Amino acid sequence: MNYTSFIGKIVKKPERSFFENDISVTEIIIKFPQLRSNNAGNIVHLSVWGKIGSEYIEYYDINDYIVVEGYISLRQPVLKSLYFQKDKQVEISVFKIYPFILNTNDKPKLKK
Q1: pLDDT digits over 2-46, tens only?
Q2: What is the topology classification, in CATH, of domain 3-101?
Q3: Strand partners, 69
């Protein structure tokens, strides 16, 4: 499998969906921090399942940096306005999310 870990910046408010049996998925769009001016390919779609998705919505906001661990897969682009290429988009099925740099104004404190 393609297990990965990386740092990304949250660029869009998360969208949450519910399936049968109260299974939830939170979809997040993040961007890799990059010094080059070429922006192609640095937008990633994250799928966060269950309780981790609920905690994500509670503690993280747009412009926060997070460390993500999960498995890589490919899918069709969701937001064509954020992509410069019409190729497939990378999607990560998330297993763990850690704070890296948070904008701490008006946020609840993280649980220890």
Answers
A1: 898 999 999 998 889 898 888 889 999 998 877 666 655 678 888
A2: OB fold (Dihydrolipoamide Acetyltransferase, E2P) (2.40.50)
A3: 5, 96
